[in-house]
Amino acid sequence: MVTKLFENAPVTEVVVEVLWSLQPIVSSPGASIDPFYQVITDPLAAKMESAGFGTTVRRIPEGAPLELFGHQAATMYRSGSDMWPLFQHGPGVFTANTVPPYEGWSVFAKFLKQGLDIFGSSHAVAAAITPTNVRLRYLNIFSQSHGVRNQAAFLRDNLGLDLKLPDAIRSHFMQLRSNVSYAGEISVPIENTDGLFGFLNWRTAVDAPTGQPLVSLDLGAVFTFPYPQVSWDVEGIMDKVEKCHYVTSEWFSSLVSGDLREKLGEVGP
Known about the structure:
2 domains, single chain
């Protein structure tokens, strides 16, 4: 499958998350621990530095209890200050992230695989981790350059999301339509692939400095492994991520109208 690139792409960030199970703390509801986290942290940092990602940024407050930050990034690894793409590690999670200029899926997939290899080779404990889920997210923001004027109309005409207020509510807010906010979430199981779900979350917003109307779209897919994995299987993880990417790419192509596609300015694969 060929991934299209756009000159005026709405994407603001692409994220792949690999997650594994945490152990809940019975005496503290909502808290959980990753028994591997402290063991892996130092050797992973050393491996990252050797691979050219020696600029680290702490993502959680100093001294904060890790058990309250399950499946959240705790440390960011970059090739330099403010450089992208980057890797992140936290209790129960490893991520790869990139922002514009987005060079396309094939480039980012290679970067992701590099990170998975680094993580798995950092310590014997890391190599034994069994992922439970992989998740791919494309975070998009559509603005006036994409044709956003009336947000509800944009969602309907350009993304196929027809949002209708009930008559009883619409009659009371007819004069305040510009102030109506819209948000929604859809998760759909993908046929012929157990454990694979596509999702999209959308929300209207306003750019505070300019007052410009915006529409955000979080589009992606998640794969849940149907049984515990034997180890940190990089090829197996990449296979599931590729399935997630296929769903995400097909959904985006299907959602986007012809008029919006012109505004995006397709420049090639």
